[in-house]
Amino acid sequence: MTQADLERMMKPPLTDAQWSRLLAFGEPQEVAEGEYLFEAGDLDYDLILVDSGEIELVRVSFGWVDETPIGRMGPRSFVGELGLLNGQGAFLSARASVAGRMLRVSRARLRLLMAEDDELCDIVLHALWARREMLRRGPAALTLKLVGPRSSREFMTLRRFAERVDLVHTAIELPPGDLGPLGEHGITLDDLPVAFIQGEPMARATPGAVAETLGLSYQARADEVVDLVVIGGGPAGLAAAIYGASEGLSTVLLDAVAPGGQAAATSRIENFLGFPFGVSGGDLIGQASLQALKFGVRVYAPCEAVDLRPAGDDLDITLTDGRVIRARTAIVTSGAAYRTLDLDRWSEFEGAGIYYAATPLELRQVFESPVVVVGGANSAGQASLYLAANGCPVHLVVRGSDLGTRMSSYLVDRLLEEPRVDVHTRSRVVGLDGSSSLERVRIDSIGDVEARGLFCFIGAEPATSWLADLDRDADGFLRTGTDVSVQSLERWQGLGREPLPFETSVPRVFAAGDVRRGSMKRVAAAVGEGSSAVASVHRALADLR
């Protein structure tokens, strides 16, 4: 999309009828010149409709940088950006440069508008999204500045969080052992990574601490019982949340890291329906996340569930910080955790040369440098082609003897034709070497090779250890529907029914996607399972009425 396209979407022209309908959602207010409508750091603020007068948007001064004007909005326009939908606090200030009549649309009223008026919903959503895209390219990106060593696992985790939840931010990489200008502010190497939020430094910053400060962490509402909590934000979880919310269920989506799951780590998905030229996992998840916000899903990340148990006719989902979400139903889509190789120094190089994804974020760390990819399935093949296409010589290490055993034929053909990819079958990685970051990898069939990065795609274990009360198979995958074991069915006698499709051994707790026994472990299948599980949720809720 061009700059001109974004600028047109940012300030959409509105007809008399559209403007009149929009005004009906706001509360009028006469505003004096110089008066603030909201200020940077406000956790709760409104969409502002400018009926008369003018508003200027500014990035506040940080001490070392002056206040910077971002833009002006005049009559028949509205002020706000995507943070209004995901709960993020304001990172810009809005003040009246010309006195006039303005109207406030609360976040609750904005969600009502998006649910009731499809035409206005599309206009507002396009504008909020376009403004977010423009803001990330300008001085507003300094409102959240992340600084850390390039080879730091903690810094990589922080950056991945910011990118996955689509925060407007700037990331500054430091050479190992070098503080640059940070030393003048009293910051030490032990304080890294640092997040500067509105100019204020947060030492040893973590995704959770940044999310809490920005207003993105879960906040319970008094005596609230939500209809549906979806635990895990991969394709299955996003689909479940979108279908649930679009069908009128109050829906909360939790993810321990950020929405996307393993799909967000996939550089190119070529067999997803409707994308003949392929789509990156990041783009697919980004559009799905926006769709979730459109339908009113409350998305919280990083937000990890550690316990789930019945509470009368409801369910209690406990988070790591002890907060409890009370829900009528839950869908577990927690996916799986990446498998690792049992090698010395593995944990030392994680985030400093060892990666479980091949996206633009990881590519920046290894650009045009030699890399090793481990794995024999589609994800390993897609990663190898993506890295090779961006100038990286690739060693693809496959334990089996036939590359086509677990990989699609179209990928096998392209890999064998790609001159930058060397395929090593019947091979294993047996050693790692380097100083502060990975420099060499030892492959048993050929010896040492230079490698700036090792990309590991050898599968994953189901993330179900926190669900001890649910019926699982020997590998930890959740049993659902007719697969629930006979001894677990005794608890259902009082309900007078058997488990519904996708329902686990605990009533009103469902499972979908990679975490479920028998699932296809494909993005399209996960989307189908997540959306289908919502049909069973409705049937379970009907039993409560």
Ordered list of secondary-structure elements with their pairings:
Layout: H1 3-10, H2 16-23, E1 27-31, E2 36-38, E3 47-50, E4 54-59, E5 68-73, E6 77-79, H3 83-86, E7 93-98, E8 100-105, H4 107-116, H5 118-135, E9 144-149, H6 153-164, E10 170-174, E11 194-197, E12 200-202, H7 207-214, E13 226-231, H8 235-246, E14 251-254, H9 281-294, E15 298-300, E16 305-311, E17 314-319, E18 324-332, E19 336-338, H10 346-349, E20 354-355, H11 360-366, E21 371-374, H12 378-389, E22 394-397, H13 409-417, E23 421-424, E24 429-434, E25 438-443, E26 447-450, E27 453-456, E28 460-462, E29 509-511, H14 523-544
Parallel strand pairs: 9-10, 13-14, 13-18, 14-15, 18-29, 20-27, 21-22, 21-27, 22-23
Antiparallel strand pairs: 1-8, 2-7, 3-6, 3-8, 4-5, 4-7, 9-11, 11-12, 16-17, 17-18, 19-28, 24-25, 25-26
Helix pairs in contact: 1-5, 4-5, 8-9, 8-14, 12-13
Oligomer: single chain
**Total beta strand runs:** 29
The amount of beta strand, in percent, is 15-25%
The major β-sheet equals:
7 strands, mixed
Distance between the termini: 48 Å
Count of runs of 4 or more consecutive helical residues: 14
Helix content: 25-40%
Q: Care to give the gist of this entry?
A:
This protein has 545 residues and is α/β, with parallel strands linked by helices.
Core attributes:
single chain, alpha/beta, globular, 545 residues, five-stranded parallel β-sheet, 14 helices, seven-stranded mixed β-sheet
What would you say this structure looks like, in words?
The protein has 545 residues and is of the alpha/beta class. The chain is 27% helix and 25% strand. The strands form seven sheets. Strands 13, 14, 15, 16, 17, 18 and 29 form a seven-stranded mixed beta sheet that branches. Strands 20-27-21-22-23 form a five-stranded parallel beta sheet, covered by helices on one side. Strand 17 and strand 18 form a beta hairpin. Helix 8 (235-246) runs parallel beside helix 9 and helix 12 (378-389) packs parallel to helix 13. The chain starts with a helix and ends with a helix.
